[in-house]
Structure to design on (324 residues):
């Protein structure tokens, strides 16, 4: 491989950024010393941070020719920040690796990824082998999401986040996808190029706070499922059928009780029916609304992100290297 870009989305990462840069530069230098790559770049994408993240990126870009930065004009979201990094790097790099700034994903797995790329693999997924550093709740909800996503008809690599290597041709193919509602770990699985997995142990976060609290995790899960499956819409029919069955059973029970001489308060059955049917209708409206909202966002065709400024040696300005 000639050129490797490591794309790192950042949002309020001032506590970890210096350490992250040191580890990634060391990884690039080792790859170069071992003749696995000729050139490498760290591409930081500042996703609208409110702390000193961009200031630190600028300082490190001045200090090292291996570091460059892209500052988005607003908080576009983690997936769009990754997209921005790939769009800016694909002309220059033969392969791109995406990794989060906290480096809970093991940097040493990068070497195995590059080795697999050299063997002809276009997409190498980093898969978490152990997640003891995560809470039981986070592990349980993550497992539940992966299973639900697959039940809904989506394809995703179990225990894979967004730590992966992609070749130039795989990245270019991914960038052809026009949708604005991005769920990259699902989209990448639809490309069809040769894939492999690299397994690693997830590390504890050294400094700073997780940028994915429960609210964001739930939002991300809903985004992923509704971006890849229409089965939730079909469930509305199942809910309607279930309501009809329950109503018929209630009628049968009422008739049986009446013929048996037992009295049932009239308001009880009425209230239960109203609450049940009302809840089913609201649930159905919510599911439909989620899909209508996605259509609304897509048809507006607004840009995924806007770049405010860039710093460092920009890969997109380099010579375009045609490769796999």
């Amino acid at each position: 491989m000639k050129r490797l870009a490591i794309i790192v989305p950042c949002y309020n990462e001032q506590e970890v950024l210096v350490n992250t840069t040191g580890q990634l530069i060391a990884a690039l230098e080792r790859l170069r010393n071992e003749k696995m790559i000729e050139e490498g770049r760290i591409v930081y994408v500042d996703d609208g941070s409110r702390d000193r993240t961009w200031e630190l990126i600028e300082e490190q870009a001045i200090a090292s020719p291996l570091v460059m930065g892209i500052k988005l004009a607003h908080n576009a979201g983690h997936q769009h920040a990754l997209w921005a990094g790939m769009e800016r790097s694909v002309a220059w790099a033969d392969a791109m690796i995406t990794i989060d700034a906290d480096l809970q994903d093991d940097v040493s797995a990068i070497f195995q990824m590059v080795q697999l790329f050299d063997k002809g693999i276009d997409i190498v997924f980093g898969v978490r082998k152990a997640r003891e550093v995560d809470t039981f709740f986070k592990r349980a909800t993550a497992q539940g999401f992966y299973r639900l996503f697959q039940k809904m008809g989506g394809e995703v690599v179990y225990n894979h986040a967004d730590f992966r290597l992609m070749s130039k041709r795989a990245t270019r193919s991914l960038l052809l996808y026009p949708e604005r509602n991005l769920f990259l770990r699902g989209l990448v699985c639809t490309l069809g190029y040769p894939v492999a997995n690299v397994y690693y142990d997830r590390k504890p976060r050294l400094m700073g706070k997780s940028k994915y609290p429960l609210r964001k995790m739930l939002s991300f899960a809903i985004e992923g499922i509704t971006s890849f499956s229409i089965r939730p819409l079909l469930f509305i029919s199942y809910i309607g059928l279930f309501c009809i069955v329950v109503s018929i059973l209630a009628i049968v029970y009422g008739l049986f009780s009446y013929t048996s001489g037992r009295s049932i308060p009239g308001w009880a059955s009425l209230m239960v029916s109203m609450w049940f049917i009302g809840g089913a209708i609201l649930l159905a409206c919510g599911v439909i609304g989620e899909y209508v909202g996605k259509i609304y966002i897509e048809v507006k065709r607004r840009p995924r992100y806007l770049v405010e400024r860039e710093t460092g040696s920009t890969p997109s300005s380099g010579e375009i290297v045609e490769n796999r």
Confidence is low (pLDDT under 50) at residues 317-324.
